[in-house]
């Protein structure tokens, strides 16, 4: 599989799942760098907030594949993978780079949009440049852009840096080492230094489908001319773009008077799934109180596994774990086994209780569970359900009238015979390794069998085995040159030397030490490369944005065959963690501690999670390992995303597809990949997440 086929397949798969755009215009202006721009030059206008863009650009000797995310209305970030044919003494260069842009001023009737940006920071610097760009639209058809660039964007038509007025040092740009060994370092001393040059261009939209772009480029393609025989004849570029109804674009470029290029771009709008309301069956209709009490209530059998209440909840994908009736209040403990949004599970449970319990039960206290522990208690009044079911503002009113609190100690008496529980499944799997230094796409495809046994509440035995069927993860031939213990750099050996693989084999115990506290203890084969013992404690108030956790692990490195044996390497590792929900879907995380190679440091993470569960994030790790000892990339960093199944299909199904993309995998800053860390286990039923997805309460 080629990288282009991969990106087109992945993008089209996600894109087709979103369906046609309808009346919404998803078109966006992307450059050959896959970022907001003209052809080679950037623009001052950002994309719509939250947009995710996949772009592929092909010329005779160059390929660029870019993932760009409009993180906020003002900020975008990009990851790019480029293939430059014959760049390194006849050998191909596989280059990875990051871009960043910030909107300084929004466009108004009389003022252009103004943005500042960095290209290829933290990479080799082949495309290293900085810019300030202004863009103004005139009517529905004409857009003009002008700007000033530095670095590569000042290699044609350059002049003395005007920032030299501030300090003479701005007039000189330090020579940059663009070798692989220097990747990952932020050479701030280069930013906005050296000569500057003007660029500009025009975009004319003939109709909603056809757009012409022309630009004056300040990029002389000096390195490509020297190393690849590129023929730069003119600074002028032009393109013709056809936009499809669903937002995808195809462009044909005329570049510098000597080459033709092709671009394909696909916009993905995470906040707009194909089925925003879902395609699951409608919830039970609320019955009048007078009709159901005599029909459904049996006080003697309600705590039995096969009671009418248990069966009614099971029909809605919920498992009744406990119930207590005291006066006019029913306290119910349940497990949500179907709905991605916990708010939807609460709404379904409340309807079932209203239809099953006697008329004099006026208050429902719903205790949500995850992995055997109660994670929150939501109190609803029966009268609110009845009065707000058809209210136009029923979602917000019902949330405002609900009460949310911790449930460290469940007040619901257990259901007889609910344990043990046994579940199993056989599914296909795809295990990708993206953008390594020698091959942009490696992946294995096969069959996975997984099973879990819960003999008692909170105790879970789990296992998964994999049988690869096809793939190329075992074709990597690059030996590890790491001076650190090879805690991750020999990961390819696990694909080469294994057939049937034990993915994990663990015993887990989840518990509640006290109010707002959660605990986890795990022992066994924890992940592909390590087995051992892991323990974690989390403090997470139901109604607060802050959570604090601590994790301690003792692990040994597994044999390459991924069966039961271990190698000689062992390590004690652990972290103290802080999590913060900033609101608006932005989540921050800080982990400080010891990593698998014995290095000490911290990992900084930021994620944006949309109300439907679609999540995009980035992270970086700095430890006491020097950049030189770390090797290529200088420090660990990457981007990650997670796409829920219900975002793709509209079906009420938990789970999804997620992956992490690192420019390079090294041994510094490597953390244990243990399953079921507590923060993500418990947060779905806490107030912030419930509020974000409360629109599902009535679904």
TrEMBL record:
- As given in the record, the signal peptide range reads 1-23
InterPro entries xref list: YbjH (IPR010344)
- Keyword check for Signal: yes
Domain of life from the UniProt record? Bacteria
Query: What are the alphabetically sorted keywords of the record?
Result: Signal
Q: What is this protein called?
A: Exopolysaccharide biosynthesis protein YbjH
Which source organism does the UniProt entry give?
Celeribacter baekdonensis
Classification lineage = Bacteria, Pseudomonadati, Pseudomonadota, Alphaproteobacteria, Rhodobacterales
């Amino acid at each position: 599989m080629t990288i282009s086929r991969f990106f087109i397949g992945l993008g089209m798969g996600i894109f087709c799942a979103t369906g046609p755009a309808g009346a919404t215009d998803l078109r966006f202006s992307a450059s050959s760098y896959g970022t907001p721009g003209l052809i080679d030059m950037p623009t001052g206008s950002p994309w719509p907030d939250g947009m995710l863009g996949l772009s592929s650009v092909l010329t005779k000797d160059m390929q660029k594949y870019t993932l760009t995310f409009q993180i906020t209305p003002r900020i975008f970030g990009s990851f790019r993978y480029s293939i430059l044919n014959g760049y390194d003494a006849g050998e191909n260069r596989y280059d990875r780079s990051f871009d960043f842009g910030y909107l300084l001023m929004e466009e108004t009737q009389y003022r252009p949009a103004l943005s500042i940006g960095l290209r290829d920071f933290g990479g080799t610097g082949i495309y290293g440049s900085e810019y300030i760009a202004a863009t103004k639209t005139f009517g529905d058809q004409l857009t003009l852009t002008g700007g000033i660039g530095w670095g590569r964007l000042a290699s044609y038509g350059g002049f003395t840096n005007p920032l030299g007025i501030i300090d003479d040092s701005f007039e000189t740009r330090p020579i940059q080492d663009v070798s692989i060994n220097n990747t990952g370092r932020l050479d701030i001393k280069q930013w906005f230094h050296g000569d500057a040059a003007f660029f500009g261009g025009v975009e004319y939209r003939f109709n909603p489908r056809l757009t012409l772009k022309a630009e004056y480029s300040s990029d002389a393609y000096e390195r490509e001319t020297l190393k690849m025989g590129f023929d730069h004849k003119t600074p002028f570029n032009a393109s013709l773009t056809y936009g499809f109804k669903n937002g995808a674009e195809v462009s044909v470029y005329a570049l510098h008077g000597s080459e033709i290029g092709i671009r394909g771009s696909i916009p993905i709008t995470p906040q707009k799934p194909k089925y925003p309301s879902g395609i699951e069956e409608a919830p039970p209709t609320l019955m009048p109180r007078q009709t159901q009490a005599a029909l459904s209530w049996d006080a003697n059998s309600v705590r039995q596994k096969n009671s009418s209440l248990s069966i009614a909840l099971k029909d809605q994908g919920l498992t009744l774990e406990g119930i207590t009736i005291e006066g006019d209040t029913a306290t119910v403990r349940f497990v949500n086994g179907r709905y991605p949004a916990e708010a939807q599970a609460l709404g379904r449970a409340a309807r079932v209780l209203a239809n099953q319990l006697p008329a004099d039960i006026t208050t429902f206290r719903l205790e949500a569970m995850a992995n055997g522990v109660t994670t929150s208690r939501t109190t609803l009044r029966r009268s609110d359900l009845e009065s707000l079911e058809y209210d136009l503002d029923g979602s917000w009113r019902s949330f405002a009238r609900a009460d949310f609190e911790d449930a460290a100690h469940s007040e619901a008496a257990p259901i007889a015979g609910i344990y043990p529980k046994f579940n199993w499944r056989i599914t296909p799997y795809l295990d990708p390794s993206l953008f390594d230094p020698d091959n942009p796409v490696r992946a294995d495809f096969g069959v996975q069998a997984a099973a879990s046994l819960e003999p008692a509440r909170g105790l879970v035995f789990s296992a998964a085995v994999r049988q690869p069927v096809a793939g190329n993860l075992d074709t990597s031939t690059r030996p590890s040159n790491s001076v650190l213990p090879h805690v991750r750099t020999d990961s390819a050996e696990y694909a080469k030397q294994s057939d049937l693989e034990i993915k994990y084999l663990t015993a887990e115990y989840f518990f509640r030490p006290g109010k707002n506290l959660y605990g986890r203890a795990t022992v066994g084969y924890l992940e592909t490369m390590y087995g051992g013992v892991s323990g974690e404690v989390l403090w997470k108030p139901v109604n607060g944005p802050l959570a604090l956790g601590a994790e301690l692990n003792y692990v040994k490195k597994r044999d390459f065959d991924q069966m039961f044996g271990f190698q000689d390497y062992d390590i004690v590792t652990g972290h103290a963690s802080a999590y913060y929900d900033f609101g608006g879907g932005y989540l921050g995380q800080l982990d400080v501690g010891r990593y698998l190679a014995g290095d000490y440091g911290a990992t900084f993470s930021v994620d944006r999670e949309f109300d439907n569960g679609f999540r995009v994030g980035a992270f970086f790790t700095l430890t006491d390992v020097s950049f030189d000892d770390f090797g290529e990339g200088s420090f660990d960093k990457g981007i990650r995303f997670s796409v829920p199944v219900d975002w793709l299909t509209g079906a009420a199904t938990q789970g999804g597809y997620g992956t992490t993309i690192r420019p390079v995998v090294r041994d510094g800053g490597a953390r244990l990949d243990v399953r079921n860390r507590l923060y993500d286990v418990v947060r779905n039923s806490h107030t912030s997440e419930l509020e974000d997805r409360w629109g599902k309460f009535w679904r």
